[in-house]
Design goal:
The structure is a single chain. By secondary structure, the protein is of the alpha/beta class. The chain has one domain: NAD(P)-binding Rossmann-like Domain (Rossmann fold). It contains nine helices and eight strands. The chain starts with a strand and ends with a helix. The structure holds NADP nicotinamide-adenine-dinucleotide phosphate (NAP). NADP nicotinamide-adenine-dinucleotide phosphate (NAP) binds next to helix 1.
Length: 273
Amino acid sequence: MKCLITGPTSGLGLETTKALAKLGYHLILIGRSKTKLDSLKTSLITEYNCVVDTYTCDLSLITETIQTAKKIKDKYTEIDVLINNAGGIFMDHEITKEGLEMTFALNHMSYFVLTNYLLDCVKKKIINVASEAHRGVVISNDFSNPKYFNGWRQYKKSKLANIYFTYHLDKILSKSNSAVTVNCLHPGVVNTNIANNNKNFFYKVISSFIKFFAISSKQGASTIISLASDSLFDEISGLYFIKSKPVKSSTISYDDDIAESLWTSSNEIWKTM
Ligand SMILES: NC(=O)c1ccc[n+]([C@@H]2O[C@H](COP(=O)([O-])OP(=O)(O)OC[C@H]3O[C@@H](n4cnc5c(N)ncnc54)[C@H](OP(=O)(O)O)[C@@H]3O)[C@@H](O)[C@H]2O)c1
């Protein structure tokens, strides 16, 4: 079984990678640090004797994501499972060199571009790591570059976008009678490195407080690992999971018009790069 995972060098992605290596998966890993990927590859091969292929890529950049996806597509005609996991919280307003707001670019566009580029290679499952943080926000027209930036609100919107993306892709796949499933999940509040790129003092205090109550990455990764490897989920698609059980996402996340409009605008952004 071949599994492609984004963000395998830390937190939830790392725990998922180790668990799938233990199960004998052939791993295709996309991370932003070559040094971290090289050292992860060595330790996975030493410990689990598995096949590991790594790609260095800044997933916040669409052009780099496409170049990497192209290399992967040139090498693999079939990938069983794709796990979109790489993400971050950016409390300061950062713009990528392609002109997109960083949270939008990394947390939403990387899922959208990588999945769509590789769609005909993926044969079984697509798993999108979303979050309960998606509740209490709506996605407006300025999502890709907000006029009034609030880092936490933008993160929440990006996680709502992961759910729209999952539900809309599920519709497209089922219309084309594809056997591929797509689901999303909330891993829990997990003690990872997710907030470490923020210097904001107030945010650091709040996040240290939250981390005190957070579960471990190993516990948090359990839903991702189950969805990827348990045959129980082989034919289930278009759902949002917490603790490996399907649950209702926010009411607005089921709005098909918003999902379609986000899909269209994301596609336009991708095609202009
Ligand atoms: N932690 C939580 O409580 C929680 C809750 C709900 C949902 N989530 C979601 O879980 C996912 C994983 O987050 P995590 O908590 O495991 O965080 P994490 O420990 O910070 O891991 C994030 C991973 O993404 C990689 N990454 C970050 N920016 C990248 C970029 N520009 N290009 C390529 N790779 C990049 C990181 O690489 P480096 O190792 O090089 O930094 C790392 O491997 C995210 O989608 C997040 O929204 C987390």
